[in-house]
Amino acid sequence: MAAQTSPPRSAYPLGIFSPRLWGAHALVVIFVTGAVLLGVWQYESSQQDKQDQVAELVHAKPKVFGDVIGPNDAFPWEQIGRPVTVSGIWMPEETIFIDGMERGSQVGFWAVTPVLVENTESAVYVVRGWTPEVGSAPPAPRGHVTVTGWLQPSDWTDVADDRKSDNVFPQLDISDLISRTSYDLYSAYVVRSPVEDNWPASSMPVNEGATDVADVPAPQLPEPDATTGLRNLLYAIEWWLFGVFAIYVWWRYMRDTLRPRPENDNDTTTTTTTTTTRKRCRPLRKRLRKATYPPRRESFRQSDRLSDHGHHRGCAARRAVPHRPAAPLRVLGQRRSLAGQGQRRRLAAGR
Q: Considering the entire predicted model, what is its pTM?
């Protein structure tokens, strides 16, 4: 008759919403929230390190413009946004304006005047500042000048100049301005830097002839080193991975806890253990009988029945049942020898 199994039972009828599991839920929420916040804090620290390095590079000690780039050199991209000092002569007749430049919420123009670099025959455009209207812009300065600013590459956009007869341009494209001036041009331009308190005393910029125009920030800043803030970034990733691992542990715990278990779990375990013991003991009994005992005889049937009865109750029960073991081969040989001697004596007496 097959054993009847009861339907699986669960110690948590409400499932994941059981009050007995609220502690685990609260623990994982606290741990994951803390890991996320600590990761965000480390990430912000990494970004702040990069901003601090950029500010340090922007306000570093200015280099001589001629030491950074030559008249016929390509733009040194590793020096983008670095402060440089240009010395030369203003060329006010070559002043131009760049349209569409924003300053806060206003849109105006850049006032740009080239400077003929001393000891060369090439000029570099210098962004003097921002003005709301071309007509209200102050006149371009004249004479010798020493100006400090940030090195910038030529603008490369697809905006075309529809008004080629005036001095207003949509972008500061050096390749476009070469055909409109009588001087050779450097492959870069300089944005005049304002005199700020952030500049070290040893590298205070000098700006002559750039009055009555608003300051212009550097369009492109220098890039920080690749390893700047890397340690904080790795810490942030580590904290986030801890949060993911906590969620995984919580999920495994919920899955194992809420898994239904049958009522006869213990009975099934006992039956399985008994069956396994029988399978292990049965071959051993057969090997011992085959190797030690002689073939079965009629006189040993009762003991065999006792042995089989004990075997079906398990190995321990079989060993506990008292029975007479079968005679070894040596004893049987002696019995046969004595029987033969008696038969010879009877034959001799009959003669």
A: 0.58
